[in-house]
Write a structure and sequence with these properties.
It contains seven helices and 19 strands. The protein folds into three domains: 3-62 and 198-220, Pseudouridine synthase; 64-190, Pseudouridine synthase, CATH 3.30.2350.10; 225-281, Archaeosine Trna-guanine Transglycosylase, Chain: A, domain 4, CATH 2.30.130.10. The strands form four sheets. Strands 1, 2, 3, 4, 7, 10, 11, 12, 13 and 14 form a ten-stranded mixed sheet that branches. The chain has a five-stranded mixed sheet with strand order 15-17-18-19-16, with helices on one face. It has a two-stranded antiparallel ribbon with strand order 5-6. Strand 10 (141-150) and strand 11 (158-165) form a beta hairpin. The protein is α+β, with helices and mostly antiparallel strands. It has helices at residues 15-26, 56-60, 95-104, 126-131, 171-181, 218-221, 232-239; strands at 3-9, 31-33, 42-49, 64-72, 74-76, 85-88, 107-111, 120-121, 124-125, 141-150, 158-165, 186-196, 199-200, 216-217, 227-229, 244-245, 255-258, 264-272, 275-281. The longest helix is centred in the N-terminal third of the chain and has 12 residues, at 15-26. The termini are close together.
Length: 282
């Protein structure tokens, strides 16, 4: 049972809760997720099963898209409405200002992650410090907003949106930054992840509905990956984890090694010019 599952996470469960429930449902020990969704958030959560757990990093590097709602007027310690209100004011802007500000945020900027995040500083997660009432200075990270658009008009100091962003972007921070540009406070009240790379929540299933036939096998996942065919002697070495070099292939891309029966044997990545390391042995 090696491969990936597209789960439609409901509001209220942690990502770990989803992993635990799928473990129990499929009776599988080795399973992990590819990017945390907060309990208050819903949407696409990609799980790695078995040998595929070694590939979780490949999903963290992908762009992501979300739908959500920002409520203006209060600043929460968590940057979403599940936290404690720290500051308040009365918003004083019109819809046209909001539209212009959203449009002007498209592009690359240096974002400050929220304290309530899983980023580690000196071995401790920021949210652990935050729960102890400790706030520290966070390093900014460069993020890119490719698409940011309103999906509802501004009503009762709140607006819904669609956003497409680069890896590592915190949508809660975007809500706070948007409000700050409008000289007010703001926080997320709703968040749904709708896509990760080419994978969409429309293809995901609820935990109760999902079954083993929904697993994306490693063969299917790598179907468009370049490949080379090696003879039986080399295949034995590959199965033992041998590194490959220019004698077998000259490439700058990851690739699949197949045997002469065209079966997938291993997935290799480039670690240096003319040096290739096995990541997964099928």
């Amino acid at each position: 049972m090696d491969g990936f599952l597209l789960v439609n996470k409901p509001v209220g469960l942690t990502s770990h809760d989803v992993v635990y429930r799928i473990k129990k449902k499929f009776h599988i020990d080795k399973i992990g997720h590819t990017g945390t969704l907060d309990p208050f958030a819903s949407g696409l959560l990609i799980l790695c099963l078995g040998k595929a757990t070694k590939l979780a990093y490949m999903f963290s590097n992908l762009d992501k898209a979300y739908e959500g709602t920002v409520v203006f007027g209060n600043h929460y310690d968590t940057y979403d409405t599940t936290g404690k209100i720290v500051f308040s004011n009365t918003p004083n802007f019109i819809q046209k200002e909001l539209e212009n500000t959203i449009s002007n945020m498209i592009g690359t900027y240096d974002q400050v992650p929220p304290m309530y995040s899983a980023i580690k500083v000196d071995g401790k997660k920021l949210y652990e410090l935050a729960r102890d009432g400790i706030e520290i200075e966070r390093e900014t990270r460069e993020v890119t907003i490719d698409i940011f658009e309103m999906t509802t008009p501004l009503i009762d100091n709140q607006v819904s949106f669609y956003i497409h962003v680069s890896k590592g972007t915190y949508i809660r921070s975007i809500a706070v930054d948007l409000a700050e540009k409008l000289n007010t406070y703001g926080a997320l009240s709703v968040l749904k992840r709708v896509s990760v790379g080419k994978y969409n929540v429309l293809h995901a299933k609820n935990i109760e509905e999902i079954n083993k036939s929904d697993i994306i096998s490693l063969d299917n996942y790598f179907i468009d990956t370049p490949s080379i065919v090696l003879n039986d002697y080399m295949i034995k070495l590959v199965k033992n984890g041998v590194y490959l070099d220019q004698r077998q292939i000259d490439t700058n891309e990851a690739f699949i090694v197949k045997n002469e029966a065209m079966e997938n044997i291993a997935y290799y990545e480039v670690i240096a010019p003319n040096q290739y390391k096995p990541v997964i042995i099928f």
